[in-house]
Every structure is written in structure tokens, then in C-alpha cells.
Amino acid sequence: MKLSTEISGLKLRNPTILASGILGETGGTLLNVARNGAGAVTTKSIGIKPKKGNKNPTVLETEYGLINAVGLANPGIDNYENEIKTALKSKIPVIGSVFGKNKKEFVLVSKKMENFGVNAIELNMSCPHARGYGVEIGEDKKIVYDIVKNVKKTVDVPVFVKISVHTNILSLAKNIEFAKADAIVAINSLRGMKIDLDLKIPVLSNKIGGYSGPGIKPVGVRTVYEIASNVKIPVIGCGGVMNGKDAVEYMMAGASAVQIGSGVYYRGVDVFKKICDEIKLWMKKNGYKRIDEIIGVALK
Amino acid sequence: MNYPEIVRIAETKKETENIKTFRFKYNKKVRPGQFFMVWISGVDEIPMSVSYTDNFKGITVEQVGEATKALFKMKKGDKIGIRGPYGNGFKTPKGKVLFVAGGTGIIPVASLIEKIKKKNAVVVFGAKTKKKLFFMDRIKKSKLLISTDNGSFGYHGFASELVEEALRKEKFNSIITCGPEKMMKKILDLGIKHKIPVQASLERFMKCGIGICDSCAINGYHVCKDGPVFDDKTLGKMKDFGKFKREASGRRVRI
Ligand SMILES: Cc1cc2nc3c(=O)[nH]c(=O)nc-3n(C[C@H](O)[C@H](O)[C@H](O)COP(=O)(O)O)c2cc1C
Ligand code: FES
Questions:
Q1: Which helix (H) or strand (E) holds A81?
Q2: Which terminus, N or C, of chain B has the lesser number of Cβ atoms within 10 Å?
Q3: Taking CB atoms and an 8 Å cutoff, what residues of chain A touch B219?
Q4: A106-138 pLDDT per residue, tens
Q5: Which residues of chain A lie closer than 8 angstroms to B37, CB-CB?
Q6: ipTM reported for the complex, 2 dp
Q7: A65-68 and A94-98: which strand pairing?
Q8: The pTM is what?
Q9: Does B166 share its domain with B234?
């Protein structure tokens, strides 16, 4: 049975990718994720300068998922070369996630990422809780077009754009395609909040955070389905993938691969191996020999 | 669920000029060496070793940064958020144990020392000065070897020197250590030299406490989840142990 898949020339041994911001800050951890079966790994989103991120609490569990407002903490691109070098020892594709507050920052950090040797770039235009970054840029389709076009002009590796549902996704997706991006990653976490009933205040120091995990899966599947129905570039599904069936569902909706974040929390770092085994089991039961045969079957 | 439970401080005790213990009711079972994420609302949430692991839990705090300063000011009746316990905790050692604590490193090991038969425990405790020694009444039933950097109490010098001497004189089945990482690195090397298994409790900057944010990473391991206690075999694989740590941004810096 073949689990391999391809995203704009980027070959993956299986369709499970570590999502950005979960376990991906250090090279040693990225290597460990690769050892646990991931088809590719995405780094934490990296910006131009070191950033401490928000004060704690930054991560909470709720009934149907996690809420986080880590605040784009990262060591800054100039301190990141060794992390990438370590991660590349895994021999699986390493996707460098990049954020910035304008075109100049996105281009500069992407170029450095490429020089460090990443196999693809993911532009984070969808962080739901950091002022001046993320969705605040990603909701303006003209700015997005401009950034993607310029990053594409600057680097040769495939460029993915990660988007949020707090936008007009269809016109945004079309702009991303026009700008010649190689794939769209959908979705990032949703804006959420948790209030403590005893202290009567929002628990996250940032008050608002990103909601991820099982609760957002239907939103993710719908978004992937709509995007895949309207653009031709590959889509990578993300949001609430916990098991093999979730992965299959995203792929039926049109995803060429899936990213897994919160699943690491719920099922451990070997969630990648587990999900691959579950996909195989599903394929066996349903008579599939290649996983890429199911991409988009639900779109008709 | 990994979500802070709000508890009221039931008791506070000043241990030294700069160190205080806070006791509260929290019903989850805790092993010595595990930690809580302690939420001081409006300020921060920080990892703290559990200093009293029975039903009446306790944390013991040194004033070092903004969060610990805010906690230090809190009184009986004030509310804090607790989630956890997290991490693995110490494996209960068998046979004769050498405990090696440097400064606030005594905090996570004190409740383990209390659980070990007194004839089986030798405790080396090093502090900067006499005034910085605390928890003495909790550990005094074991054989104590105390050092201070300035000689104001006990041996004038480093704890590691007392450890070398103890290892020459007696046979131990295991070593348990917590304190400054450079000290623990020395203790690990001594343990390897004498072929005695070592457990060391590490400290790193933490955000989530539940193994997903990667801020507490050391060479692919997570101090919050795989640790905070690591054995000699694992420590031997950690190139950064005793040498590098990570800042809040994730930047790798010298210890
Ligand atoms: C703790 C945490 C940190 C995250 N940090 C980032 C980040 O730096 N960049 C990014 O693009 N997405 C980040 N995300 C979003 C995830 O990559 C993913 O899009 C989202 O969590 C939904 O997937 P999931 O349900 O599998 O977690 C983060 C998510 C979590 C839970
Ligand atoms: S504190 Fe988040 S992974 Fe350890």
C-alpha cells in the first residue's frame, strides 16, 4: 500500500505533516518528530527578530480542543540556521514557516530560510491572535497577493500560504493562486476565548487565543472542500486531525496531505505513526492501494 | 483537563529572607520531583516543583523574577491557579542513596528524602551562605553533609567536593541530584566514574507544561514531559546538559 503523496513537486513518504507551532521550535525536536513517522515537518513560525511571545498562561485545554496564544515566540531567523541544519538530518522535507509584518520581512526571512536549506516555505498569514501579524495581514487579499508574489520571485523552493477562516477564503484563495503560490494550507486555529468562572477573567494573558483540535475539524474540512473546488493548486488540510479517518476525510475533501498539531497533545508524539497505520487499515478495508487516489473524491 | 484549578493559600511560611513556602489543598496525587504550573492571575504562570507532596500540597518559592515576587506578596486566603502535577518525578531509589542538592535544589528532593529510611540516605546540601540553608528540619534525620560557599556553616567549599569524599568513603546504590546545572553535570560525571546510577532534575523555561510548545526542549527531549527528572543514560545523550539552555524566544544561550 502506498502512502506517499506529492505537493507541487515536494515528495512526502506519507501525508502526515507536523503543523507549525507544535513542537517545532528546535531542531532536535523536529528530528524526533521525523523519527515518529511524520511525512514532513513544519518549523515554528519564524520572524525577523527574536520574540519572547506572550506571558503565560499561553496554552489551555478546553472541552473540544486547545486554546493558545503563544504570541509568535521565536528565536529570530538569524539564530535559526542550526535548528534547520539539525532538522534536515531527518531526510524528510522540512518546511520553514515564516511570519512578518510586511512584504519586506516576509521576503527577507523566506530568503534566509531557503539559504538554510528548507525544502519549502510556508507563509503564516493567519495567526489569529498577534497584533499586526497573521490574520491582520492575511485578511487583506491585495497585501497577501503582493507578499506571495514577491516571495515567489525571491525563492525557488515551493511556497505554501497558510490561511485563516476569519477571511473571505474564496477570493483570498484565488489571489493566492494568481500570485503563483504552490499550495494553500487551511486552516489555522480559530479566534477563541476561555473565561475562568472563579476569577471571572479570561485565562490567557492575551485574552484571545487560537482554538484548535477536534472541535474545529468540520470547519477545516469545509474550508478545504471550498478551496479545492475553486482553485487548482494543491491544498494541505489542517485542523483537528486526530486519527486516520480524519486524515482520509480531509483528503476526500481535496487535501493532498494533512497537518497535525493538537493531535500531538491528544495522542503523543507518535501520532504520525499511529495515523499512518490507521490510514493503511482504512485503505485495506476499502480496497485502496494508493492514498493519493482518494484526494478530492468527495468534490464531485 | 489541563486547566488551572483555583485554590486558596491556606498557610505561608518564611524559609529564608528570600524563600517562602505556600501550602494549599489540592487533591491530585503527586510524586516527589513532579511540578505544578502556578498561575498568578494578571502576572504570569510559572512551573514550580512541589515541595510537599501529601494531601496538603506545598510549593516553595524563591523571589527571582516578576512572577515569584508577586507570589511572595500573597497571603493566606489569596487565590492562585494550579494545574498539574506534570512531569515524571523521581523513580523511588533502592538501597543506599546519596542526595545532592544545591540551593533551591533541595525543594523537589525534600519530600523524597522524607520517604526514604533514614539509614539509607545521605544528604549533601550546598548553599551560598548559612542564611540560605532551609528545610533543615525536614532532612535532619538523615546523615547530613552541609557546605557553604563562604564557609559560614559546615564545609567551606562546593557540594561536589563533599560528594567526592562521600563516594570515597561509602558505597551508594544511587545518586539523586537537583541544583545548578553545572553542579549536576559534575555529579553526573562522578556517578559515571563510580558506576552509580544518577537521577537529575532539570529546569528549563516553560510555557505549556504539557509537551507541545517546545520551549523546554533540550536535544529533542522535553523537560516538562520526558523530565524534569532524567537518568544518567539520557543525560549522557544531551549535548546541551550543563552547557546551553533556551530563552523565552527559544534562542539557545550558554548557561
Ligand atoms: C500551541 C500552538 C502554537 C501554534 N503556533 C503556530 C505558529 O507559530 N504558526 C502557525 O502557522 N500556526 C500555529 N499554530 C496553529 C497550528 O499550526 C494549526 O494550524 C492549528 O492548531 C490547527 O490544527 P490542529 O487542530 O491540528 O492543532 C499553533 C497551534 C498551537 C496549538
Ligand atoms: S513547556 Fe511546552 S513543551 Fe515543555
A1: helix A81-88
A2: N
A3: 28
A4: 999 999 999 999 999 999 988 777 777 777 776
A5: 56-57
A6: 0.93
A7: unpaired
A8: 0.95
A9: yes
